[in-house]
Design a protein that fits this description.
468 residues; six-stranded mixed β-sheet; 25% strand; Rossmann fold; 2 domains; single chain; alpha/beta
Length: 468
């Protein structure tokens, strides 16, 4: 059994202020048990997971694994507790899935043949046997997450801590994860799933909520916590006086794209006009991310072109492109360059030649709009934010630039349910004031007045009114 008793964790702080993230947490996980851990973004779920795996050692309270404290033998603890990181880039180090999964097995003194066999078996369990020798860069974010999961499975620990394994999963991916979790229970493994998805409730033994530093099984109180509070009504000082861009066209003409000769997008043509709200959906690997990266001018198409009005978007400077099309990445860590929240947002504004006074006004508004209190978060290091907070920061940095078209690539998936609702409210408010919005999501968002693009197999198979 993993047992947490009285665990306390203080946040990185400035000056005399010391925020408590975990405040006397008690938690247990037994073999053969599946537990769901839920909570708002920034509530401490990932921090708790790292304590369970022995990556963090308690200064207050204790964590024991089968009676052994994590501070007594951390290496032994890590053999018994496998942690799937929320961000796969923190866990994957090799060039191919097979190399990456086999790397961890080198510590078990297995023969090369046994290591490769065990690695291939783990990749088969996550549905990636056929991609064992592909480059990691050619995989989708969901596939990279499954590579990391295969690495944990291959080590055969007693306990599995899965930090948002479903973040980028579609319905088939969720079904695969559920089958694996059930296999682990049958093998008498303990599984802790950290997730925002209600899907898991009917498939677990217990649901634990982490809120205000405490872990409880008494139900979620519904506190809003740090989210997009009031975002539907918060506008930058110059938002109403700034005329919404009109008359522009963003057009994709016969777009195709290949990753190392593997087709990802084929002959896609579509147009975006000012003032639209477009939802792009489709299964994993259908080409959604590839399409929006092409629309934003971040990737060169293999054939075809993207036009801003009548100008190829790649003919624009980077400074011009970001004012036309702003993209919030599916994996926000890829676009966070500043040392802290303030620097992150001001970097982009400075590059645009915005005055210091207006830059601070825009930065403050953008942070407040996405639920990052400026006074609390402006000096926080970007890498210390939770995954959901990083997604909010990436959105704030893009909002501050006032792009004509705002694209969010599966940003909803990084947020808890309340945060998702609040983000949608913010996007609808921005859209109402003239911003053109493109939202990429694995599933259609109900009750959202929008235009719908559906991708399948790299093809645009539907372009029309939202199917509500």
């Amino acid at each position: 059994m993993i047992a947490v008793r009285g665990l306390v964790h203080h946040l990185f702080s400035f000056g005399s202020r010391r925020d408590v993230l975990l405040n006397g947490v008690d938690l247990t996980l037994e073999q053969g048990e599946i537990v769901l851990l839920m909570g708002r973004n920034g509530s401490g779920k990932t921090t708790l997971a790292r304590y369970l795996a022995g990556l963090l050692i308690p200064k207050e309270g204790t964590v024991t694994v089968d009676g052994v404290r994590t501070d007594q033998d951390p290496r032994a603890i890590r053999r018994r507790v496998g942690l799937l990181f929320q961000e796969s880039h923190e866990q994957i180090i090799a060039q191919t899935p097979l190399e990456d999964v086999a790397f961890g097995l080198e510590n078990l003194a297995l023969s090369p043949e046994d290591m490769q066999g065990r690695a291939m078996q783990a990749l088969e369990r996550v549905g990636l046997r056929e991609k064992a020798l592909c480059t990691i860069e050619s995989l989708t974010p969901a596939e990279r997450q499954r590579v990391a999961l295969a690495g944990v499975l291959a080590m055969e620990p007693t306990y599995y801590i899965l930090d948002e394994p479903d973040r980028t999963a579609d319905r088939d991916g969720l079904a695969l994860l559920l089958a694996l979790v059930r296999e682990l229970r049958t093998a008498n493994k303990g599984v802790l799933i950290i997730s925002h998805k209600e899907f898991w409730r009917e498939h677990v033994d217990r649901v634990v909520h982490l809120e205000h530093g405490k872990a409880t099984e008494n139900g979620f109180t519904g506190s809003r916590g740090q989210g997009f509070e009031g975002s539907a009504t918060r506008e930058p000082a110059n938002w109403r006086t700034r005329k919404p861009p009109s008359g522009f066209h963003l057009r994709a003409q016969a777009l195709s794209f290949h990753y190392n000769s593997v087709p990802a997008l084929g002959d896609v043509s579509a147009a975006v006009t000012a003032g639209e709200f477009i939802v792009i959906t489709g299964p994993e690997g259908s080409g959604k991310t590839t399409l929006v990266e092409l629309l934003a001018g971040l990737t060169q198409p293999s054939s075809g072109c993207v036009l801003w009005n009548d100008t190829p978007i790649h003919a624009l400077t980077a400074r011009e492109r970001v004012r036309c099309v702003g993209l919030v990445f599916q994996e926000p860590y890829q676009q966070l360059l500043g040392e802290n929240v303030q620097e992150e947002i001001l970097l982009g504004l400075s590059a645009q030649g915005i005055s210091p006074r207006e830059s601070e006004q825009r930065a403050r508004w953008a942070c407040e709009a996405v639920g990052l209190d400026w006074d609390r978060f402006s000096r926080q290091p970007s890498h210390r934010l939770s995954g959901g907070e990083q997604a909010r920061l990436a959105l704030a940095a893009m909002l501050a630039l006032h792009p004509s078209v705002l694209i969010l690539d599966e940003t909803l998936s990084a947020l808890d349910p309340a945060g998702q609702s609040e983000l949608l409210a913010l996007l609808q408010a921005l859209h109402a004031h003239g911003m053109t919005v493109i939202l990429v999501t694995p599933e259609v968002v109900p009750h959202l007045e929008s235009r719908l693009w559906v991708l399948e197999g790299g093809q645009l198979v539907y372009d029309g009114p939202s199917q509500r």
